[in-house]
Design goal:
Elements: E1 2-3, H1 7-14, H2 23-40, E2 47-48
Parallel strand pairs: 1-2
């Protein structure tokens, strides 16, 4: 099973959108998803994929400053 979530939340956080999910709430929800999956499917191998962000906008936010 592969779980890839968070890119919309990352984008909202980078843009400082009012509806961005706070990091602790994201962490709690992510851990809940993993815990429930492992309890229902104990032999299931889980592949976690980090969200990434590639902007094609000319004046995008640069986090490498």
């Amino acid at each position: 099973m592969a779980i890839k979530i968070g890119i919309n939340d990352l984008h909202k956080t980078l843009r400082q959108s009012g509806d961005a999910i706070p990091p602790q709430a994201f962490h709690n929800a992510y851990n809940d998803i993993l815990s429930r999956t492992k309890s229902v499917l104990p032999k299931c191998e889980i592949l976690l994929i980090e969200p990434f962000y590639i902007s094609v906008e000319e004046n995008s936010i640069n986090t490498n400053k």
